[in-house]
Amino acid sequence: MKETIEAIENDYKISFTMFAEGYKFREMAQILQLNIEIVKRRFFFARKQLYAQLKYEPKITAF
After folding, report:
1. How many CA atoms does the CB half-sphere of 5 hold within 13 Å?
2. Phi-psi region of 34 (alpha: psi -120 to 50; beta: other; left: phi over 0)
3. At what angle do helices 25-32 and 10-20 cross, to 10 degrees?
4. What is the four-CA torsion angle of 23, 56, 8, 47, rounded to 10 degrees?
5. Where are the domains of the chain?
6. pLDDT one-digit tens code per residue, 8-63
7. Which one has a higher pLDDT value, 3 or 63?
8. pLDDT at residue 26, rounded to an integer
9. 55 — phi, psi (to 5°)?
10. Are 43 and 15 in contact (CB under 8 A)?
C-alpha cells in the first residue's frame, strides 16, 4: 500500500497523507496556505488515483 501512495502525484499526496494523519481540511488549508476547496479537490483526486491503482470500484449507495 505504501508504494501505491508514493505513486500519487505530489500535490495530491500531501493532502491525502495529511488527512490520513488526522488533519481537518480547514487545518490543511491554513498550513498549506491554500483555499480549502483546492485542498478538498486534491484529496478527491488522490483518492481517485488510489482507486485506479488498486483497481477498486467504490460502491455507491442511495440514501
Report:
1. 11
2. beta
3. 130
4. -30
5. 1-6+15-32+42-63
6. 778 888 888 999 999 999 999 999 999 999 999 999 988 888 888 887 666 666 66
7. 3
8. 97
9. 55, 45
10. yes
